[in-house]
């Protein structure tokens, strides 16, 4: 956690974000028998984390956590311009693991952390609907 001096007031600015991927539901079937072998890639900036693969399901449960360090100033309007666009986005990409060939894309959700922080939104226990 860090403090930024704003008009002689001290303001809290997060330095890390912790993400918990609980479950998926209603996913498309890409594998045999009407199911998928599903995993999620979680990304903030250039850092990535991948959940384990849950086999033969369209409603996987992971209950996996990861933490990302945020770039200094990336959540502040005046600091964002120093970084490439999307540097403050939390990107969740759901994939089907293919045994042969490339893994198949199932969906993606993008959460702009700068907007969440600026709007002071608390996103505990939120279901995020990915874009297909």
UniProtKB/TrEMBL annotation:
Protein transport as UniProt keyword: no
Xref: PROSITE patterns: C2 (PS50004)
GO BP annotations, alphabetical order: regulated exocytosis
CC per GO annotation: early endosome; mitochondrion; phagocytic vesicle; recycling endosome; secretory granule
UniProt entry tagged with the keyword Lyase: no
Residues annotated as domain C2: 1-126
Keyword annotations of the record: Endosome
Subcellular location(s) of the protein: Recycling endosome
Domain of life: Eukaryota
Primary residence: other
Protein name, entry field: C2 domain-containing protein
């Amino acid at each position: 956690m860090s403090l930024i001096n704003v008009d002689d007031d001290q303001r809290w600015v997060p330095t890390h974000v912790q993400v918990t991927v609980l479950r998926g539901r209603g996913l498309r079937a890409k594998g045999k028998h009407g199911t998928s072998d599903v995993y999620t890639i979680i990304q903030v900036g250039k850092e990535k984390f991948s959940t384990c693969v849950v086999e033969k399901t369209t409603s996987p449960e992971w209950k996996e956590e990861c933490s990302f360090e945020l770039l200094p100033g990336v959540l502040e309007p005046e600091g964002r311009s120093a970084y490439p666009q999307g540097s403050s986005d939390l990107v969740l990409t759901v994939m089907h693991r293919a045994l042969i060939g490339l893994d198949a894309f199932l969906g993606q959700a993008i959460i702009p952390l700068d907007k969440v922080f600026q709007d002071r939104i608390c996103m505990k226990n939120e279901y995020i609907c990915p874009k297909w």
